């Protein structure tokens, strides 16, 4: 495909004889014009993304959302390609430092867009929490390790090309236009996942006017800005994102499945560390991670199906907790949950005691949300104002920050979204007519719940 | 949930206090009204369908088509529910034998609709071919084996209920209205998969006017008919189905991936049978199938991820053929193909010889389409006219068969769709400038291809 | 169709032998089940709504938005029908005063929904301003005047039925559930127009999850409430409505066309009152309105086409102002506009003087937004808190007002949306290179404009 | 805007400083890049298309289909623009006669696309039939008459430019690529109207894969061809068109409204010619047409609203036939119809006699379909094989005609679609329980109808 120094020079700018397209439900078609992009898609590291779901456990709530990181990655590439086309058509640089678009940056932007999630593994969030991996570090590793096919393709462009792509993803690349295309409050990544997750879940909260946003987007010396005439389209995007977080990404049932997954891996690790994981339960491809001694190669062999396969094995384990948690995960038996406030947080120890009294090991059968970061960022310019706020471009050349002129955006700016929840077995909500040994415990437990919140029943009963 | 004789009587007709809904991209919502349906969805056998893709290898061509049999199954249930509602509202039976709808059949229809694919396993078509399983038999086994959760739920309705559901799926149930809802030329199954596969692939060939078809559908003594005013909507459905077969289901790349999968499992079975499958390549959950001694329980433990996990293990095998085929499958390296006619079929031995000469074992690296049945049926009333033709209802009560009045349907009636293809390694198409030991062989091979067909070059060169 | 006392009793509840449907792009189908509804649709007063555009001049900005009040009216009917179905299925009254739904109210609700806009005329807003008509009074007149076909149909249901329908539209009907279905912050009227106007303009700002809102809607003793689990769907509806106002209903170009229309009718009225409207410009069907002596019959003869026909006649008038304004309206030559604040309002007399100096009669060629009310209401519970705020229903039966728990809604609650604008001829923006007698005046005028606002240039030039 | 010789040279290629866009529901945006195109849209002749509905009486059947010829015309322009972009990007000419695309033809193609329907008037088909006008001749007249604004803009490009555009529309322009873009079996005109009419009617029969068709379209020396890989997309387009004709364009209710319109204008003309049209019924703007002495200027003053205004006047006429037909048209009271065959055609005189006997003047109250041509062409290569058949391009450069390889297209090729119908007053179908003087006549009449067809009852009763 690419051999020797002579070809390298050509390879960088090699266009396909004829554009190739991938049919895509969100963008109709993904247009592939460079040999490099086609070669990257054909690497095993990229193909592996087909076997990792974009939204992890979310399909347990929204059954349609079974799409993979592969589909999202080509979508981010396509939006970036469209941004580059627009910039090149309307804002081509004329001289250095004029703040306009230099189309020599195109291939860097396209590769970074395509590969920005290449380091993700199965159930990334929970996996990282248990095994101490980090998908951003792994992205860099996959880009820069000579053992990967991705690295081989990138190196064929230029020896320093893999590191360049890595620096875009790490946001240290000098050209902030390229960085912000891939990673900012309103970037190709977020725009694709909102539209895509909306489509696959079957909700319509995430829809916004992509074509209009692309139209008003323009480069400037410090990155990317938007013409003020598109303010409402940008505002609509921010509100859509907020709605998707509230209604999809933060959904309690999906989070509850993440809790079970976390507890399941925690139990397996515990058993492994105490040599109590039987031979028939041994997770061959996971062993390097249990042993905390894994290579990039080991990581590349993981996907959702690999983990699920071990869960199936574990569902037959003689360890009751391991097999029960595995079955709850595989057969979608979510924990229940209730919200709590700073004030009702004090009730948690008492509630855990009830769960213990009802026969559950509360280390494995309860959890609070604290241990789970939010899976995606939310617009919060106060925290990192310098880097990511959205600037609108006015006719006289001045900029104005979005939340200054949008009441809607101001309303959700800097707010901590999401909620804190206490998770517990559904059995605790059993009704009294279901005769059971633990009925009195259930009844006591239930007195502390009201309208979906923990409720300090003790105070009221004084 | 259901215990003892007394509850059984109630269970059958138990409605949920409040309708539950599942969000669905195709039908907006799936409405669940019976406790029985909710309990069936929550069984492990049904939840397992989340881990089996509806379209097998099709996502290698249409990357969006990663949806599972779970989503399709609840969709078939929902369409059936809407048909029952319509029948009950507009065509309720008044006396036995009047050919109208008896709503006591509703629960049977709903359960059969929901469970019609419960016996499907991973990559069903190829799996069945290699291991001699049969998904229809396995559906019946899962419905009727006392060991399954599905059977337990069904038995709680009535002791003979599992067999009733099985008979609907086997088309032997006396009420043909129920049978045809689930299985006929224009049934809930086909209607859901066309709309769903269209949506997820991002093509629009499969769209048709579901609402209009449901409106004109009506029961009669021998099954289901359609009012003639909806003729064009039915016609459009038939044409849409034809288009989906031509453009999606028969796509050569997806079929090529099926070929690789077939060869891969064939090689693993061969190695197993010759004791050449190493310990580290041992497919724990597949062993009962290699040994041809499996239980329903064993079958239920399989899913796409389990097979893929063994493919990952095999990709590291020391057997070159096994590891190469596993990598081709995992990393999406399809074989190439060309169509052949009855006339050019005679070229196949010669072409296989070229493939062998180029260093490939042609038993594993070539195939023809012959060994693969078509994955779905096509409208072909000539073959089984009695059971499945579409009858239109006229105002004076007479029926007329669809293809009699639709030129479009007549055009594709009884036609054998699809094509016969010869599959071979992509490497055979290498161009002469890619210097290679086998270049002369490639060149000879390529002389027998033209415009996507095998071509009898020898004749022309006389 | 309906004759004599005997039939009257039957007529009220007469269902069609077979449901009739109208194909509709928003709701797929409009289902018609009552003979009364079919008869109302077939009246000349209702058919006339086909010739009156729903959005008046908005199609001059969004060319797709050419839909009529007919399409919207049947849409409001359909949503109301779905609400009734849901209420009857899930919340049927058991005893008087239980706050649940009494399905005897259905026909009243359906008729009121269908007829709520029956009194609208061509370009209602401007027409009313010039001729002192009022579409709500005219709605009541059409419902209750014995001369109309609508009244004849309604009377056939019951003698007092026309007044009942009128009282629903006037919000004085005792059952507030019926009133709020048709007229409240989140009623069938608003829900249909948001979805419909979105669809026809081709924007997607107005889309929201109708099915989910219908699911969480429920009756209570004081009207209609929403289950709190649907809070985000309701919130999304409010935000969508806000966006549609900002981006579609308040669009400056459409408003500018309204300004021209207003000035055109004002000029014609002036000429008529001074006997300067020539015979060939005489607007036969409008004369009763110029003479301020019109009947319901006269009003029913008006539609958009009638007014436009007179505008075509007037475009050939010898009165320069009349013919010029008519041509600007017919040929879409909008005025330009700039926003002004309380502070820059003082500039208006000076700017009007410039317009006069450039040769335009500023009484006809300038305007401010003041003279135009907002075409639709905006969520503003502070103003009329009693009647229209949105209450959410919690599991323990208590209600909570939407803006209390939604930051987004709180952000736009009670805000006066829209902007104040000064309209003037586009010619005032001529650039200096277009040599013109008035160039110096244009240049002076333009100094008072900046970034789309009036700008107090005098201060800055001190 | 454009003055003097110097500017003319520049005007032709003048691009807007910044692309302008029109929001469009079908194509998202219409992109306007040339000053010429913007100026053409702003002419009064083009703006007038906003007041003429694309589908005439079809909105009486599909109420959503109220869109104007303006929206369709900008849509045809936009598709043509996309075709030019694709051709210029992928198939730019290198030397004269290579059969590839010369982008100097772009402005001609765009103008012809935009203006192809500029000669259409209100209810074109019927209007032409009564008044002997011809919309193609009028298109040429509007393009080439010095009195029109359109001509003024075109002349500013080049003196011979108006005639060039006219020759494209008349298909005599030498470059057949340009001609076929605008007018062939699969041109920008048909592609836009299928998608647009589908969208506005709310049916989905007309949808097809525009993006894919644009992708496979390519220029060759004799016009336009399609790569064979897109065969199924082209096939789907042909089938969609067939379906739209069957279900929308040929709908009996819309045709019945055309019949009434025809009879209404026929009656008015008769009264005018016999001096029996009263002063208050005088149709000022129509007089030149009644007098058969009209100018282009007169024609430009007509639109749907103008005709409807006179219909409203006529609905108050003392001539019973004129006022009744006017009211039937305005208030949507369609005639009923039945199909007839060559055999049952002989029944027509007898049936007309029944209608006369029931008190209707059968010259005005009956009609057959014969007098109405089909409103759009249908794929019929046999009739005009030379010009319009669809050729598919194979990899080796040879062409193959579509119907040769598509069974579906072959099935509808050369078929005369549509049906012959006899129209009569709905009152003829009155049921016997509606006591009426003419009941016996109705009963006799109805004996000749069966399943929607005329039926030779006399034979059967022998």
TrEMBL record, chains A, B, C, D:
SUPFAM superfamilies: HD-domain/PDEase-like. GO terms for biological process: dGTP catabolic process. Keywords: Hydrolase. PROSITE patterns: HD. GO terms for molecular function: dGTPase activity. SMART domains: HDc. CDD domains: HDc. Residues 69-194 form the HD domain. InterPro entries: dGTPase-like, HD/PDEase_dom, HD_assoc_2, HD_domain. This is Hydrolase. The lineage of its organism: Bacteria, Bacillati, Bacillota, Bacilli, Lactobacillales.
């Amino acid at each position: 495909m690419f051999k020797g120094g002579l070809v390298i020079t050509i390879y960088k700018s090699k266009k396909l004889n004829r554009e190739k397209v991938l049919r895509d439900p969100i963008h109709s078609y993904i247009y592939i014009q460079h040999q490099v992009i086609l070669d990257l898609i054909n690497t095993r590291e990229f193909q592996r993304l087909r076997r990792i779901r974009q939204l992890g456990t979310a399909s347990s709530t929204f059954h349609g959302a079974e799409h993979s990181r592969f589909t999202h990655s080509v979508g981010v590439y396509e939006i970036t390609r469209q941004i580059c086309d627009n910039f090149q058509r309307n804002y081509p640089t004329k001289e250095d430092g004029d703040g306009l678009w230099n189309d020599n940056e195109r291939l860097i932007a396209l590769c970074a867009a395509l590969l920005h999630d290449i380091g993700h593994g199965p159930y990334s969030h929970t996996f990282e929490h248990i095994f101490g991996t980090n998908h951003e570090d792994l992205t860099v590793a996959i880009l820069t390790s000579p053992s990967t096919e991705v690295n081989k393709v990138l190196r064929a462009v230029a020896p320093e090309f893999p590191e360049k792509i890595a620096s875009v993803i790490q946001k240290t690349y000098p050209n902030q236009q390229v960085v912000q295309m891939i990673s900012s409050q309103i970037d190709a990544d977020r725009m694709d996942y909102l539209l895509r997750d909306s489509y696959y879940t079957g909700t319509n909260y995430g829809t916004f006017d992509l074509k209009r946003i692309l139209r008003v987007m323009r480069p400037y010396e410090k990155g990317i800005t938007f013409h003020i005439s598109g303010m409402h389209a940008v505002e609509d995007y921010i509100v859509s994102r907020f709605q998707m977080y509230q209604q999809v990404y933060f959904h309690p049932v999906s989070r509850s499945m993440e809790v079970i997954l976390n507890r399941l891996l925690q139990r397996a690790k515990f058993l492994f560390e105490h040599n109590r994981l039987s031979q028939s339960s041994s997770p061959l491809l996971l062993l390097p991670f249990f042993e905390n001694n894994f290579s990039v190669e080991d990581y590349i062999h993981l996907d959702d199906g690999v983990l699920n396969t071990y869960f199936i094995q574990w569902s037959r384990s003689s360890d009751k907790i391991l097999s029960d948690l595995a079955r709850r995960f595989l057969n979608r038996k979510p924990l229940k949950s209730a919200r709590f406030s700073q004030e009702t947080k004090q009730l948690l120890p008492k509630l855990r005691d009830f769960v213990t009294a009802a026969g559950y090991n509360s280390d494995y059968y309860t959890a609070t949300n604290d241990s789970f970061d939010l899976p995606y960022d939310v617009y919060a310019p106060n925290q990192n104002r310098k880097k990511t706020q959205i600037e609108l471009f006015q006719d006289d050349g001045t900029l104005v920050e979005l939340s200054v002129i949008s009441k809607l955006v101001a309303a959700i700016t800097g707010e901590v979204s999401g909620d804190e929840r206490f998770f517990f077995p559904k059995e605790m909500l059993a009704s009294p007519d279901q005769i059971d040994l633990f009925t009195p415990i259930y009844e006591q437990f239930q007195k502390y719940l009201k309208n979906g919140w923990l409720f300090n029943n003790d105070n009221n009963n004084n």
